[in-house]
UniProtKB/TrEMBL annotation:
Lineage, broadest ranks: Bacteria, Pseudomonadati, Bacteroidota, Flavobacteriia, Flavobacteriales
This protein's record includes keyword Signal: yes
InterPro entries membership: Beta-lactam-related, Beta-lactam/transpept-like, Diverse_Enzym_Activities
SUPFAM superfamilies (alphabetical): beta-lactamase/transpeptidase-like
UniProt keyword terms in alphabetical order: Signal
Annotated signal sequence range: 1-18
Record-given protein name: CubicO group peptidase, beta-lactamase class C family
Amino acid sequence: MKFPQYFSLLIVSSLLFACSNESDSDTEKSGIPAVITPVPLDTYFPPITRTDEWETVSIETLGWNENQVDNLYTYLEDNDTDAFIILKDGRIVIEKYFGDFTKDDNHAWNSAGKNLTSMLTGIAQQEEFLSITDATSQYLGEGWSSLTIDQELSITIKNQLTMTTGLDYNVEDAFCTDPECLIYLNDIGTTWYYHNAPYTLLDDVIANATNTDFNSYFSEKIKEPIGMQGLFIKVGYNNVFFSTARSMARFGLLNLNQGTWDDTPILLDTAYFNSMTNSSQDLNLSYGYLYWLNGKSSYRVPGSEVEFTGSLIPNAPADLYAGLGKNDQKLYMVPSLDLVIVRMGSASSEIQLGPSGFDNELWGLINEIIQ
């Protein structure tokens, strides 16, 4: 007896449905869980051979809120961002470029590059080329400023690292490093003011102490060992570092691992690293050795003599430390969350030399994703 074709299909479908139910039932009875991608717990270091190879981890795997990512992207784009990266344990979670900017394009770090100079100073000290308690004059010679000899000899490398030189920041050009621009205002170590000129002179201190070109020493000690690219370029009086966003992320990862890249020690001096990333003086608790610090009880900002009460970035984790540059160049490092976050672009609103309102707004959106 022959069945019509639709009866044959009905019988086959019923059998498949029965088998499917039986299979599902058997899986449930066996207790076999659904496949879940484990969260990698080890720290990943991308290869130093300057390839595109870099491990990623998904937002879903981390259990973060993917629904909030578009809000973050909209905010970044609306605020003239060129590049944005989030690393978790060294792996890329988010990497986004805007407009014509690409992962191969270089961007100015501006004052976020102060972090590079600070770490390089620590390396020069561990190699015994200098001590941060040395007088700056030991490496720049007599007459590098318009101070008296005694005043000049009182300024140390540590004063340059901590913005406590006492030099006059009210001069016509606060970036000027010529002797006539470097005049006495306050006793050394009695005031904190974000003064670029004494910081810039650290480059000459390091070059003279090591008897080598500043870029060459940086390349040998930091850039090449961790696979960065980029270059310090003279812009007026300033020495500005330019690199890709991924190179900035690499340096952030080096910091997150306290100066060690994978198994290669870069900055061995743990005492210096701890001093660099903690309050370096009592005048601005939110400042280390050229690093900005969150979670302190008060802070001062560039261009102001006022002390503000509270944390530098209230929305951000208390243990965050950062490189913060003009036009909102951001390098955030958060040890408690194993995060490195990079933002490069133009100014989000009004031009600021370091911290700005953009930091807190951005962290509000980041929290919506990671929490």
